[in-house]
Amino acid sequence: MVTKSGVLSSGTRGVLLSEYSKFILDELSLLPEADFEAEFTRFFEEEDLAGKTLPGYLYQRLYRNLFVQEGFEDPDRAQFLGEKMYPEIVESPALAWEGNISSKYSIEKSLALIKGRYKNVEKQIYLTLENIKKDPRYNQFIQQLREKGWLDWQIVQAMYNHILNYKTQGYVRQRDFSSEKEFEKRFQEVLWELGKVDEQQMYVEFPLDFFMDKHFEFQLNNVLVLILRRWELENKSRFPNFNSLRQFLNDRFNFGQDDLPENSPL
Asked: With 80 as the cut, is the pLDDT of residue 203 above it?
């Protein structure tokens, strides 16, 4: 509530701070909504999350009551020389990076998923692969992607998504839609249908340059987002931090190690 002076009460401040924290953490979290709600509630009940919001308020109260406004606005403060300070940076255990393998991970599941991806995308890209392998730049292109840490299954998956997205866009945009929601619904329907069709039935010739632009780079990064649900996770951020997400998957789900090179069509 608001006091007579127009200042929010400590209880209201605590509630707002908790709600803001929840909103920010929810967007950053990779947990499904139900799991996040349960964990956030647990922190309130078992980790005294509500109590930990009070120090911020106490600091603000001390600052406002003990530091006189006239003193802050005193022009003489500009005469003091700045002093360089080098505080020791100490990582809080609560904010430490968790680099251990996740309890959700298993090598058997990981390799089974990779094997399935190779099998499922092969019939949609085999003609394109035959074509771009004729380009003298092909080997160097693939090698550069591997040197950047991308494994073959991730490159193949990105190629598949890039091709499928292009075909779907071309098909769906042949007509107008009354709303973005209607367009998105039809886009997903066509995407699903084309994903089951042999490439020969809807062949479009794609040169190697098609895979050398920023749109393909986005598809590579988007693989990071798409595989989360296979590990019972999800992305809720509007603007994912791909570098952090990649490190997370590398550390906790062996994203940068697990592959079946013998199954690769590259």
From this structure: yes
